[in-house]
């Protein structure tokens, strides 16, 4: 299998860097092809701006969606963006390694998404607007996994913890960014208390991470509901009979044992 490791930390001794190193070692050891995007080492341009569109569709007004679609369709993207898309499209699995900064990914990684997730590929797939999203699209068939170094203690991220549950905080990444263009997203791997981890803590985290890597192609993905699987008849809102009475983020994840309505012909 081909695996893309994307990581966002400039310090080699950081938890993030150490876990990325383990990923490379373990996955290569299993015979996989491992490709890396070490964003700080690459000097990745984080800001999405007019420099991303050397040949503009419209010189009067900068519309990011229009220019992204135009550049993607006409071979007008910058070389760094093209290279990352090539790596992504070749990957069977993508692992994002990052420290939790303000309950999200560092700006350099957000900028990697902003610039690489082109219109026509990651959204507006095949020029069909939102016809293909959430479970299908340009990155369908790939697995994705977040490996996050979290400064705070696990209790702060527990079901009633003060920060909110980590998997809910990361929903815009797992659901909105990775599942949107079609990836199957595995439950997040987190190392809590990462800011002050001692050798023993790092050894425990490393062992747990090795276990997750061993099961990369076996673990069940988060049961996000696909747009076109029948739960969203108008492609916008859950049908009344699906997760009745439930609202908010959790309603978009099928519960274990939930009876799935099968579409005629499936
Ligand atoms: C800009 C910044 C924002 C941070 N935001 C959070 C946060 O939202 N929640 C948290 O638990 N820790 C936060 N931290 C602490 C980091 O998550 C912590 O330093 C990191 O996980 C340590 O891992 P590393 O060795 O990979 O850097 C933040 C740190 C920085 C520098």
TrEMBL record:
Q: Which Gene3D superfamilies match?
A: 3.40.50.360
Say yes or no: keyword Oxidoreductase present.
yes
| Residue ranges occupied by any Flavodoxin-like fold domain in the UniProt entry | 1-211
Top-level taxon of the source organism: Bacteria
Gene Ontology CC entries for this record: cytosol
Keyword terms of this UniProt record: Oxidoreductase
For this UniProt entry, the molecular function terms from Gene Ontology, in alphabetical order, are: NAD(P)H dehydrogenase (quinone) activity
- Protein family (similarity comment): Belongs to the NAD(P)H dehydrogenase (quinone) family.
| Name of the protein in question | Oxidoreductase
